Amino acid sequence: MILLAGLAGNDWVSAQEAKDAEKPAPAAAPDPAKTKVHPMFAEGLFIEGPVIYTYVDEKHRRRMTLDLYRPAAQEGPLPAIVMFFGGGWQNGRPGLFAALGQGLAHRGYVCVVPNYRLSGEAPFPAAVHDCKAAVRWTRANAKRFGVDPGRIAVMGGSAGGHLAGFVAATNGMAEFEGQGDNRETASTVQAAIVMCGPMELLDPAMVERVNANVASGKGDAVADFMGGASPAENPEIYRQASPFTHLDADMPPALFIDGEKDRPRARYANMWAKMDELGIPHEFKLMEGAPHPFWVYEAWYEETIDATDGFLKQYLPKK
Fold it and tell me: Which of 14, 33, 197, 285 could anchor a disulfide with 162, C-beta 3.0 to 4.6 Å?
């Protein structure tokens, strides 16, 4: 064995040890808490889109589209989940929910992920009108895509969580239907999953932040959603845009999910109290150690699917 003199003291190493020492250290395994989930495009699914679900702006007939994920093999009609992506109501796209939609489709759901008008195009309630139009489209096309029209849930994260909560809290309220297609079809939903979505836009902490941002000229995503007005300037529009304002006995069962590092439970306290008064079932899931938005990371992806699947199996059981 060939020995080489060390550079310090009387250390001696073999030629092989010296060669090994020159090799770069193996790369550390990716941190699942920082690694985003990517769409699977796996076998066993039908993936369709973009599919036109409604038109907006009667003058220009702008097309609104959605992506759809469903099992390739199914027996009987399946429950559907209409899913709303987040992005502060000012950015985002259906592809942000591609991985989650595919994962839930593998569990036996038809997942519908619509685009909706962002605040830069049209403020509240335009996004709500589009979300309800997507639910109506899903029910109107139930036979075509193997959906049970009596088992439709909504789901969303962040700004999309707000929209999911709003659609659910306004079940049957004609004033929020808008002028989209399939108006003869109901937009009611039978369950809701809200992931860190604000239910009260007049929450004191939010009001203080938005007022300060608007007054300083920084701008604010919530204010943009409200057409540029701060709560100080137009508190009524904030009240109208809050799901809590419209909550009544027609609200379906709801699952709320928060990350541990993202103000858990703070957004829902009044909502839960009122749901208890009305006898509306609700559950809460805490994602330990999770940030906002937890559902896009590998560490909490399967847990999100498990929680959603378990909740919907309870409240949208197979008939």
Answer: 197
